[in-house]
Specification:
Structural class: alpha+beta
Low-confidence stretches: 105-115, 368-378, 383-387, 550-569, 714-720
CATH topology of the largest domain: Hypothetical protein af1432
Strand content: 15-25%
Radius of gyration: 30 Å
Mean pLDDT: 77
Distance between the termini: 78 Å
CATH architecture of the largest domain: Orthogonal Bundle
Shape: globular
Helix content: 40-55%
CATH class of the largest domain: Mainly Alpha
Largest sheet: 6 strands, mixed
Number of strands: 21
Number of domains: 6
């Protein structure tokens, strides 16, 4: 282990007396870890040394580098922190103690990787450590980066758990702190372990056309350098390849648009570095004169910096016909800030004056500290992931005050962030002076105005329905739930029972034992379960997921690059045996999750019905009924739905468009009109009950729709 790289990097910015502290810490750690090996067989000291090198790349102070070198000494060498304090003083020992405490919490989390309670507790401890001294978290991020680099030696289950936590918590935290250098490495490493096939597929596809793309970038960079020289602007123009995980997200976005990897041209971007802000805008004008800009792809993060301090101009142009190219323009100082984030601001930086605006830059952290003490583990974890660790948009109040929100936030989220009562009384919203729906997605630079009721008003439980998209932030959801929790328990139970009955009827599911359903959702008492449904603690969406036998989560799992092929097999097993001739009854349209039974027909094999089907209940020849199960589920299943709505121009078009947007196939459609009420009977193909409840909810959101349910029409004869 050669520490020369660490010392040479530290020597670039540390004075000799501070460098001596780092050298002393290395010697102490070398002696303490002497003879110890990592699971990979390499000397143990390699880990703290690489952690310190990462922090030296961020040009952090001598105390941080020393603490990084010593951070495993108390845990792995049985040397108490008090001994380190005697040798290195209170500042370094306190940093080591902070990292050690975080590591202990994390070890518990790895043992029970599925425990959200443990993960939330881990985050609480991390926030407290950040509030006391943010350098603790800088060390922890560098520590996690080297651990991810050497994850191969661990069992697969632990590798997966650590990678998942890295992708959900540590990479977004690095992003929130603005440390791009660490963020992209954590994302790529985590993605490699979570989705190895996709990771290597993308790496191969990128490599296959690298020379062609690099040639394209260099040609464009050469043109831009020449134009900069003519305009008298000094600066650098370089190509920047996109990273594997960001390409993965771009592939998913393109797939949703019906395009494939070959259509993605902007796998590389150009970065322009200049001396001052005025040159940033000058070169922007040069670029837009050279090539046609895509107006929807321009962001001015210089005038409106991100909350983590990031500043840059982003524009996308078409230098060769329809081939888009992203160009980032920033000053050298902005570039340093974008790479190092808050680490570049750090108030203890050697030889630098403290940043007078440092506290403003971590205002979001102070807000989190306040939230973490008042929220339960589930709500805190959801709030952190949704509201803090996500891409952001910046909007304005009518008075011109800027507010940051997670991408996808709505006017209702805006209202609740300004004041809880403003959210409760919201009846409409204006964006840029125009009326918009409450589920409108806010965009950068929108000016948002909330219209309120003059009298007290209860929030709508429909606002919590994820398929309607009214609120996206955990903060707003919690305020709505809190309002309903304060209502009388008997009212919540009655409301919950009505909501549950309506949802079960809409899905065509027969569940009479609410107590059993409540137990499946971790409620020991049926009244507690119904009350939770009544105040929005349990949503109809979660109930549908449980009935479908799926995990309670909203996020899509990592999708494969190529879509799955459709199978013709029903997947039905008769008495545990597959490959027998079966087909699904047209009278009751069973779907996975329904209780089913088979009926032996005379000429068409076995027809599969719901057990509650009226034809099964009235069947006289009970000996023709046979036990069947879903077995391996098929790709799609037909299901009949019924939609009632007030007739209007364009209604049928809107209905079919909503279904088509969800990539659901319509097998047949019949319509009826009676006294200005339009009724549509349709048979659609779905994959599971969750998809059914999702599409029914979207249909219910259309203007004029009265009801949308799974059809209960059992009139077709059983022998057909």
């Amino acid at each position: 282990m050669d520490p020369s790289l660490l010392f040479s990097k530290a020597k670039e910015y540390l004075p000799p007396e501070k460098l001596a502290i780092v050298e002393a810490a290395y010697t102490y750690a070398f002696n303490a870890h002497d003879g110890q090996k990592r699971k990979s067989g390499t000397p143990f000291l390699e880990h703290p040394l690489q952690t310190a090198i990462t922090l030296a790349n961020l040009q952090l102070d001598a105390s941080t580098l020393a603490a990084a070198l010593l951070h495993d000494v108390p845990e792995d060498c049985n040397i108490p922190v008090s001994k380190l304090q005697e040798k290195f003083g209170p500042e370094i020992s306190k940093l080591v103690d902070g990292v050690t405490k975080l590591s202990r919490v994390e070890w518990k989390q790895e043992v029970a990787a599925s425990s959200r309670e443990s993960q939330a507790e881990n985050l609480r401890k991390m926030l407290i450590a950040m509030a006391e001294d943010m350098r603790v978290v800088f060390i922890k991020l560098a520590d996690r980066l080297h651990n991810m680099d050497t994850l191969d030696v661990l069992p697969e289950e632990r590798r997966h758990a650590i990678a998942q936590e890295t992708l959900e918590i540590y990479a977004p935290l690095a992003h929130r702190l603005g440390i791009w250098q660490i963020k992209w490495q954590l994302e790529d490493l985590a993605f490699r372990y979570l989705e190895p096939e996709q990771y290597h597929d993308i790496a191969r596809m990128v490599s296959a056309r690298r020379a062609e793309r690099e040639g394209f970038i260099e040609d464009i960079a050469g043109i831009l350098r020449e134009e900069m020289s003519k305009a008298g602007i000094e600066g650098e123009v370089t190509g920047r390849p996109k990273h594997i995980y960001s390409i993965y997200h771009k592939i998913q976005k393109y797939a949703s648009m019906g395009r494939d990897f070959g259509d993605i041209h902007d796998l590389f971007a150009l970065r322009v570095l200049v001396n001052d802000v005025s040159d940033c805008y000058k070169i922007l004008g040069v670029i837009h004169n050279l090539w046609h800009p895509m107006t929807d792809e321009f962001n001015d993060y210089i005038a409106n910096p991100k909350e983590n301090g990031y500043q840059s101009l982003h524009t996308t142009v078409l230098p060769r016909g329809t081939t888009p190219l992203e160009i980032q323009i920033r000053t050298y100082e902005m570039h340093r800030m974008s790479e190092y984030g808050l680490a570049a601001h750090w108030k203890y930086k050697e030889g630098a004056k403290p940043d007078p605006h440092f506290e403003e830059k971590i205002a979001w952290l102070r807000q989190l500290i306040d939230w973490q003490s008042s929220l339960g583990s589930e709500e805190f974890l959801e709030s952190l992931k949704q509201d803090t660790f996500s891409d952001q948009v910046f909007v304005f109040t009518p008075k011109g005050e800027i507010r940051a929100f997670p991408k996808g936030a709505t006017p209702l989220d805006f209202a609740y962030r300004i004041h809880t009562d403003l959210g409760h009384r919201c009846i409409g919203s204006k964006v840029n002076g125009r009326l918009v729906s409450l589920n409108y997605e806010l965009k950068n630079s929108d000016i948002v105005e909330i219209m309120v009721s003059k009298t007290e008003k209860a929030p709508s439980l429909d606002w919590l329905n994820p398929d309607h998209g009214y609120v996206k932030t955990a903060h707003a959801k919690e305020k709505i739930r809190a309002w309903y929790k304060k209502q009388e328990r008997t009212q919540n139970i009655e409301r919950g029972r009505a909501i549950l009955e309506k949802e079960l009827k809409r899905l065509g599911v027969d569940v009479t034992n609410y107590e059993e359903l409540g137990k499946e959702l971790d409620f020991g008492d049926v009244d507690d379960f119904l009350a939770a449904v009544g105040y929005g603690g349990i949503t109809p969406h979660q109930i549908a997921l449980k009935l479908a036998g799926e995990p309670e989560q909203h996020l899509e799992t990592h999708a494969k690059i190529s879509p799955p092929t459709k199978t013709k097999s029903s997947g039905i097993q008769v008495l545990g045996v597959g490959d027998l001739l079966t087909h699904l009854a047209k009278c009751c349209h069973p779907v996975p999750g329904d209780d089913i039974i088979g009926y032996i027909t005379r000429t068409h094999g076995i027809t599969v019905h719901r057990k509650s089907c009226i034809n099964i209940i009235n069947e006289e020849e009970k000996e023709r009924l046979i036990q069947v199960s879903w077995g391996e589920v098929a790709d799609v299943y037909p299901v009949a739905i019924q939609v009632e709505a007030y007739d209007r121009v364009g209604l049928l078009s809107d209905l079919t468009t909503v279904i088509a947007e969800e990539k659901i196939n319509i097998i047949s459609v019949n319509t009826q009109y009676k006294e200005d009420v339009f009724t549509m009977y349709a048979t659609i193909e779905i994959k599971h009950m969750t998809q059914l409840t999702h599409i029914l909810n979207k249909i219910m959101g259309l203007r004029g729709v009265i009801n949308a349910t799974k059809s209960q029409d059992d009139r077709v004869n059983i022998s057909s």
